[in-house]
Request: fold
Amino acid sequence: QQSAMPSNKNSTVIFFNKLFKFFLSLKFKRRSLTDYPSINVRNTTGQFINKRMLAYSSVEHMGLAAILWAIGCDQGALFHVCGHSLIKMTLFLIAGNILLAYGTRAIPTIGGMFKDMPKTACFWLIGILFICGMPPSPLFVTEYLLVREAGPLLSTAVLLLLFVVFGGMTKVCLSMLMGHTGSSAPLPEPTKNAER
Reply:
């Protein structure tokens, strides 16, 4: 005897389909479906404030988690959300250290972190690589699972957009780590405190 209730996987897919249709009906009626990923990619890679860049990256990762849920990878989605929250929490704490040392959140005025605060710079680089899904990041596992389980069209689109985000975020990160310091020179005492 078959149960009248749908399975958990089917109910999850139905829920996200309804949620997606609801959001489409709100504001974005005049945009085509291919415009949506590009909105967040542009916001993530074009930011000049480091904490805002991290916030837009969170939107991207919640989208990846929603896709994982929609294709039925419930455990993968949960693992992605947990891994993302730990890495992003670390990055926000490091961004606080950078703010303490330089007195600004503006990316163009931050440079030469490897020289001024090497420990913070190393953690910032590792965090950015991990949030972009480089192994051994837990996000690499979930993004690989997403690409493997999704259809060829969806997985190609996801891979392309992940590559764009990776390129944009690493460019910004490297400019902060090895670029020239802008108008804000690091403050000696706060830099020393941030490196403890």
The two ends are 65 Å apart (CA to CA). The first helix runs from residue 8 to 26. Residues 1-6, 27-40 have pLDDT under 50 and may be disordered. The chain has nine helices and no strands.
